Amino acid sequence: MKFVDSVTINISSGNGGNGCISFRREKYIPKGGPDGGNGGAGGNIWIIAIPNLNTLTDYRIKKHFYAEHGKNGSSSNCTGKKGQDIILKVPLGTRIVDIQTKIILIDLISKKQKFLLAKGGNPGLGNTCFKSSINRTPYKCTSGQKGETKSILLELILIADVGTVGLPNSGKSTFVQAISNSKTPIKNYPFTTLHPHLGFVKINSKNSFIIADIPGLIKGASLGIGLGDKFLKHLERCNILLHIIDVSLENQKEIFKNIKTINRELKKYNNILIKKKIWFIFNKIDLLKNEEKFFSISEKIEKKYNNIKCYYISAKKRIGIKKLCLDLKNFLKKQKTK
């Protein structure tokens, strides 16, 4: 299934039904008085967050949604039938934006959270409603109101506690697979991860968290190079980011350069991500050819970024994984208490 995280749709709620002008006509009851019924209300359009959905694919083809119109009122004080509502189902984490006003209408971040996107038109009144002591034969009714018509943007932003960033082939997907139930594809070439994946990390029966694996970034991602930075929005809800860094490079001075590249791309995207808590995760330590040289470089990195925690792991060999997960659990626990 193709991953779709942004789509524009058009919605129209139902019109209200018209009121009716009618007078009671029965044998032996002359001048029975008005009995025109009210119209039915127009159908509403609702949107609801469903936990087991993870893409907006269903809205790629069908982009127009119309609720049913209310029926007109009729004689004998019969009220018209209400128009049927429409309920749109979207993944948890979907943000709804009004295209015309650019206003965020709602962020659906809770299970089964429901929101009224477009209210149906109010019904018209029949002539019974206009009967009074001075007007016993009202020839008056009102029309139903028009429903609302909107163009809205559905934008999926995944909900995860922890997010990963890094260059392609830094071992992000291997790391996420090592600690979670994620089934991200892993190959020996760049950009095997083409869209974000979520993984469930279970520490014990009482503690767990969600981790997000997004496609790798390269220099110029903010300009659309590589897969671009369009998937970075899926990190906006994360409490912490793990910067996965490949330490197996022959020219280990490239490590410094690669860190700067990712930081630059995060900053160019927006200030939200660069201000988040970030930990450096030095991956592939099992492939180090010159450990002494690497650790002299890592000391310089720790000194330059003195407020950032550093971890040394091998996702493939499961080295250092357990301590990192426990520290993440403790960090997230503190965040929740705040």
UniProtKB/TrEMBL annotation:
Domain (Obg): residue spans on this chain: 1-159
An annotated Gene Ontology molecular function: GTP binding
Ranges where the OBG-type G domain occurs: 160-333
NCBIfam families to which the protein is assigned, alphabetical: Obg_CgtA (TIGR02729), PRK12297.1 (NF008955), PRK12299.1 (NF008956), small_GTP (TIGR00231)
Compartment(s): Cytoplasm
EC numbers: 3.6.5.-
Cofactor field: Mg(2+)
Similarity comment: family membership: Belongs to the TRAFAC class OBG-HflX-like GTPase superfamily. OBG GTPase family.
Keyword annotations of the record: Cytoplasm, GTP-binding, Hydrolase, Magnesium, Metal-binding, Nucleotide-binding
Binding partners and assembly: Monomer.
Described function: An essential GTPase which binds GTP, GDP and possibly (p)ppGpp with moderate affinity, with high nucleotide exchange rates and a fairly low GTP hydrolysis rate. Plays a role in control of the cell cycle, stress response, ribosome biogenesis and in those bacteria that undergo differentiation, in morphogenesis control.
Residues annotated for GTP binding in this entry: 166-173, 191-195, 213-216, 283-286, 314-316
Primary location group: cytoplasm
GO biological process: ribosome biogenesis
Gene Ontology CC entries for this record: cytoplasm
Organism, scientific name: Buchnera aphidicola subsp. Tuberolachnus salignus
Protein name (Swiss-Prot/TrEMBL): GTPase Obg
Binding sites annotated in the UniProt record for Mg(2+): 173, 193
